[in-house]
Write a structure and sequence with these properties.
alpha+beta, four-stranded antiparallel β-sheet, 4 strands
C-alpha cells in the first residue's frame, strides 16, 4: 500500500467545492446530494489509488472518483458512500 500522503497533495477548496460537500436537506430546501470532497492529487495517481488513500485517511467509503487535469494540477472529485458525510470528513482536514 502506498502512503496516502504521497497520493493526495492537498484539498481543493473553492466556493464550488464547498457547495459540493452538502448533503440533501429537504427542510432547508437543498435537494442535491453531492457529498463530495475535492483534492489535488499526484498526476500519476490512479482512481483506485485515490480511492484507497481517501478511505484510509478519513475512514470513509468512497462510491466514485472523478479526475481531471487542469493547469493547477490533477484534481480528484471524490463522492462518499451513503451514510458518510463529506462535511465531517472535511472537518478532519482542519480546513473548515
Amino acid at each position: 500500500m502506498v502512503d496516502p500522503y504521497d497520493i493526495i497533495l492537498m484539498p481543493w477548496i473553492t466556493e464550488k467545492t464547498l457547495e459540493a460537500r452538502r448533503v440533501s436537506d429537504e427542510d432547508s430546501g437543498y435537494r442535491e446530494n453531492n457529498n463530495r470532497i475535492e483534492f489535488i492529487v499526484r498526476r500519476e495517481a490512479t482512481k483506485k489509488q485515490i480511492r484507497e488513500a481517501v478511505e484510509q485517511m478519513f475512514d470513509v467509503k468512497v462510491v466514485k472518483v472523478n479526475t481531471r487535469i487542469t493547469i493547477t494540477g490533477k484534481h480528484a472529485s471524490v463522492r462518499l458512500a451513503e451514510g458518510y458525510d463529506a462535511e465531517d470528513a472535511a472537518l478532519k482536514l482542519g480546513a473548515f
